[in-house]
Design a protein that fits this description.
single chain, 281 residues, mainly alpha, 9 helices
């Protein structure tokens, strides 16, 4: 895979992890607001999860210019682990409400959200599995009387939501693949336009010296007929340079000209291209 394709994939994965961390920062503290009437509900698990999300958000924003798929995957996994740990602690208190609690709603939402946000199949499977497995294990550890008092169908319903999350994840990979191709085509088109501009800068930079040499050669032929052989070599070289000029002119069709481009400095353009290539390497 080319470096441009790698960067595109990393950028898409980075964006998904950024959104997941942002949702954690905003959503986890809402657990405190929603659970105001739940007896002995601790405040620190949602705040700790939100703090982890905030740290990941800062990390991702700091590295926005050089994202990596590994970094995006790691942040998605850590973010999910923080949320799942919070839900294990808060669900135990929600379960005390018995039939008044709709079990594992946040786990279901988390599984669907991961399916929507991550373009990485392996990362998505692990995260969705974590939401579903934590619900299944926690439900199994509830006292039998408590399980009987909860809404029927669990934890099967949560597992069904996890399956839907996996389906969304798999289907979403096609959308992300299309987005990657579109971005790669845009980068390729931009690179071709930059190359065309550089070629035209070479042509324009060479035009004035060519015209000077042509005029000087014509004058020398008139004043020094005996040098016809040497001047003929110069004229043949000029013909080759004019042919090259014509080839370079074909690149104009790849350039989208903007206001001010009609008078650009060819030498300044070439120096800027060289500086950019040096920094890129």
């Amino acid at each position: 895979m080319s470096s441009a394709a790698d960067m595109t994939s990393a950028r898409i994965a980075w964006r998904g992890s950024l959104l997941a961390a942002a949702l954690n920062v905003v959503g986890s503290p809402l657990e405190i607001l929603v659970a105001r009437g739940v007896p002995d509900m601790p405040l620190w698990p949602p705040l700790a999860a939100a703090a982890v999300g905030l740290a990941l958000l800062v990390y991702l924003i700091a590295g926005r210019n050089h994202p990596t798929r590994a970094g995006a995957a790691a942040t998605m996994l850590v973010n999910t682990a923080a949320i799942v740990a919070m839900l294990i602690m808060t669900n135990a208190h929600w379960a005390a409400l018995g039939a008044h609690w709709a079990p594992f709603q946040a786990n279901k939402l988390g599984a669907l959200t991961v399916g929507l946000l991550t373009p990485e199949i392996a990362v998505g499977v692990v995260c969705i599995g974590a939401y579903a497995a934590s619900a299944v294990v926690q439900f199994a550890l509830f006292a039998p009387a408590l399980r009987l008092g909860l809404a029927r169908g669990e934890p099967l319903v949560t597992c069904i939501f996890a399956v839907f999350g996996l389906i969304i994840l798999i289907v979403g990979t096609r959308r992300y693949a299309l987005e990657r191709r579109l971005l790669e085509n845009q980068h390729r088109a931009a690179a071709l336009e930059e190359l065309a501009r550089s070629m035209l800068a070479v042509r324009d930079f060479a035009n004035t010296p060519l015209q000077t040499i042509e005029a000087a050669t014509a004058l020398a032929r008139e004043q020094h007929p005996a040098a016809a052989t040497q001047l003929g070599r110069i004229e043949r070289a000029l013909e080759r340079l004019r042919a090259l000029n014509a080839i370079l002119s074909r690149h104009e069709s790849h350039v989208q000209w903007e206001r001010g481009d009609e008078s650009f400095d060819a030498l300044e353009r070439l120096v800027a291209d060289a500086d950019r290539d040096r920094k890129g390497s």
